[in-house]
Specification:
mainly alpha, Hypothetical protein af1432, 3 domains, four-stranded mixed sheet, two-stranded antiparallel ribbon, elongated, disordered N terminus
Length: 695
């Protein structure tokens, strides 16, 4: 009953885990999806409209382009004549001040009333109009050729060229025939002090007039009524239709700003995302139940289907970069390398369909990215070399570019209308795939995976731990290499991970370095077990498992390698010392626990393969004669015994796999221990004749 309850608890725990994962994933994705986005369609001027025929759902104006509006506003501004107020008091004050200062005449000038003459010239200059030089510069920059001078209630248009600045007025004063010859003398009188701007720029009035005039420029040039056909399927998008479509999208975005529309969009996103995530979860529940038992696997999968839609949403929300710059093929590469190709394909499809919501269902996006991901999955079995990733990136770029070219050729009627920008984006995305190699280490450390690259690094016999093993326990080292070769051969035959089991075999006996002399392969004639009891000897033999786990933890070996150390003997007994102890104590009921390895039993095919190969290789050294019959009997007996004792009950190895393993081991052992040809010896008579000839 307790076992039933345990199963029941695990069942409901799995259900709860899947439910929480699904809800959290949906919530995170929907939360960051854009909801008010004007760009509903992807189209270019000169291309064919590939969407269904589009009718107006409401009345909306056809907006002018920004360039057209700017041109109209500039034209209006150029035609505008700014207002200046004529100040009569400036003229009166300055002339009166001049007369007062020179009431006794101009020093050095005689023969005539020079004061009145100069006052008349000043009056004339003021009548033409005088403005400040800075204001003149502003008028010139704006390109305004005419101004309006307000005198009382009347505004008179006047050319800007006829108006003087204070500097021009001073120079104009000495252009007089009488004053010009006396310029040197008059300059000492500082006549410029009596020249002041009498035309004042009316800032408030000009701002009001300019705003009123600019408001006459309307942003729209027409009206599309509700139900009116905007564009037909298959029609070419020209400049005017592009403007109408842009106006429709803009008007629709403004209408969607309401709370009800936002709520409607949110509900739609929740429905679509929920369906896709639930389908993905059902795939895992039906076909990859084992992933739910591995937190690192399930975490990575759901992170992948979340992170890329989020990136897509951010790209679309800020509208700074193209979504095609995102390397979507990176996700299936990771999943293909660390898990399996089918899961990689399903994950990629789910990711792309969810991301398509953010880009408003763009057909090209879905097709291009799906093709790129499938090419990445098909072209990369395992990531063990940098060149493999480089080739994959090239193939992905070529495939995506070819698909996009095909889509463009369907839509345009001339090769000159092809959009080349997208190909640059695809090339950059392919270049970003090269970063998958260094990111592999980040993924490994984050989720606890072991890549082929890591396995190759660990299998290097020059690393510290294996080099120490070869020095301290050379017999064990050679045994480990032989077991690794046998196990890799078996794994390749049954479709298991050959590199993984080879690497695990190299480390499975590292614990023997703690007491190397107590193991037969390292002994040189002296057996230290002779001085120990059976239980003491068994304890030392068993300790190589626990000592190996300690060393593995010290050297930060991955968990998958440590599992080989703990499972290569499973929960078996040290049979030699167990049987020896039972024979020495025939009347005693022997407790097998002191002679039992801590386990657990193998729970993967690779671990089962290592157990078989380790046992067979060690036992094969005890054969007195290496005949085919003896080898076959040894292999079959040992492996059948392991099967009978239930060592492989917890791992997914089949009877067919066991049979193939037996056959492979028999063939390899026959090759290793093959009988050499015995060379014949010469008889005594022939030997003497050869000796005489040699002399």
């Amino acid at each position: 009953m307790s076992k039933f309850n345990k199963i029941e608890d695990n069942y409901w725990r799995n259900i709860a885990t899947r439910t929480v994962l699904t809800i959290v994933t949906i919530a995170v994705i929907v939360l960051l999806l854009p909801r008010n986005q004007s760009k509903l369609f992807n189209y270019e001027v000169g291309q064919v409209w590939r969407y269904p025929a589009l009718n107006a759902q409401f009345d909306f104006p056809v907006f002018k382009t920004d360039e057209a509006i700017k041109a109209e506003r500039d034209s209006v501004v150029r035609q505008y004549q700014p207002y200046f107020n004529y100040n009569e008091d400036v003229e009166k004050q300055q002339i009166e001040r001049f007369r007062e200062n020179f009431k006794n005449g101009i020093p050095g000038l005689k023969g005539g009333n020079w004061v009145e003459y100069i006052a008349g010239r000043l009056r004339y200059l003021y009548s033409l109009g005088i403005i400040d030089p800075t204001v003149e510069a502003q008028l010139e920059n704006k390109g305004e050729n005419n101004v309006r001078i307000v005198v009382g209630k009347e505004a008179v248009s006047q050319s800007r060229d006829s108006i003087l600045t204070t500097i021009n007025a001073y120079e104009r004063l000495f252009m007089d025939p009488r004053l010009g010859p006396n310029r040197t003398l008059l300059q000492s009188c500082n006549l410029n002090e009596y020249i002041e701007a009498n035309l004042v720029y009316d800032k408030d009035r000009n701002l009001t007039e300019e705003d009123d005039l600019l408001n006459t420029v309307t942003p729209a040039s027409g009206l599309v009524q509700q139900g009116e056909r905007i564009i037909d399927n298959g029609s070419v998008v020209d400049e005017y239709k592009a403007r109408v479509l842009g106006s429709y999208e803009k008007a629709l975005a403004e209408r969607n700003a309401g709370e009800s529309e936002i709520t409607s969009t949110l509900i739609g996103q929740v429905i679509i995302v929920s369906i896709l995530v639930i389908l993905f979860t059902l795939y895992l529940a039906l076909f990859r139940k084992d992933y739910f038992l591995k937190p690192r696997n399930i975490t990575m999968l759901y992170v992948m289907i979340v992170i890329f839609p989020i990136l897509t949403s951010l790209f679309m929300s800020y509208n700074k970069f193209s979504v095609y710059l995102i390397p979507f093929a990176m996700a299936p590469i990771f999943i293909r390398v660390f898990m399996d190709s089918r899961t990689a394909g399903v994950t990629h499809v789910t990711t792309i369909l969810i991301s398509a919501i953010a880009v408003k269902y763009q057909y090209e996006f879905i097709v291009v990215q799906l093709v790129g991901g499938l090419i990445a999955i098909y072209s990369l079995r395992e990531l063990s070399k940098r060149s493999q990733l480089f080739i994959t990136a090239i193939l992905v770029v070529i495939g995506e570019a070819a698909v996009y070219l095909g889509l463009q050729l369907i839509q345009v009627d001339s090769l000159t209308k092809l959009d080349s920008t997208m190909y640059y984006h695809l090339a950059i995305s392919g270049f970003e795939l090269l970063f998958t190699y260094p990111l592999m280490l980040v993924v490994e450390k984050t989720f606890g995976f072991v890549s082929a690259v890591t396995l190759f690094e660990l299998s290097n016999t020059n690393n510290d731990l294996l080099r120490r093993l070869s020095q301290v326990a050379p017999g064990t080292f050679q045994h480990s290499i032989t077991v690794g070769n046998l196990a890799a051969e078996v794994a390749n035959k049954i479709g298991a991970k050959g590199q993984l089991v080879r690497t695990g075999a190299l480390y499975h006996d590292i614990g023997k370095m703690a007491n190397p002399a107590f193991f037969t392969e390292n002994q040189a004639g002296v057996n230290p077990h002779d001085k120990l009891t059976e239980k003491e000897s068994a304890a030392i033999i068993i300790s190589h498992v626990t000592e190996g786990l300690k060393m593995a933890e010290k050297y930060n070996l991955p968990r998958v390698i440590r599992d080989f150390i703990s499972t290569h003997h499973g929960e078996g007994l040290t049979m030699y010392f167990y049987v020896k102890y039972k024979n020495a104590h025939p009347d005693e009921k022997v407790d097998p626990e002191p002679f039992r390895y801590p386990g657990p039993n193998p729970f993967t095919r690779e671990q089962a393969i290592l157990m078989m190969c380790d046992t067979v290789e060690a036992a094969s050294r005890s054969l007195k004669e290496y005949t085919e019959e003896n080898i076959c009997k040894l292999v079959n007996t040992l492996i059948d015994n392991q099967v009978a004792k239930g060592f492989f009950r917890d791992c997914p190895i089949t009877f067919r796999d066991v049979t193939v393993a037996k056959q492979t081991l028999i063939e390899r052992l026959k090759s290793i221990y093959h009988t050499r040809i015995q060379y014949p010896k010469l008889n005594s008579r022939d030997s003497k004749l050869d000796d005489e000839k040699s002399k």
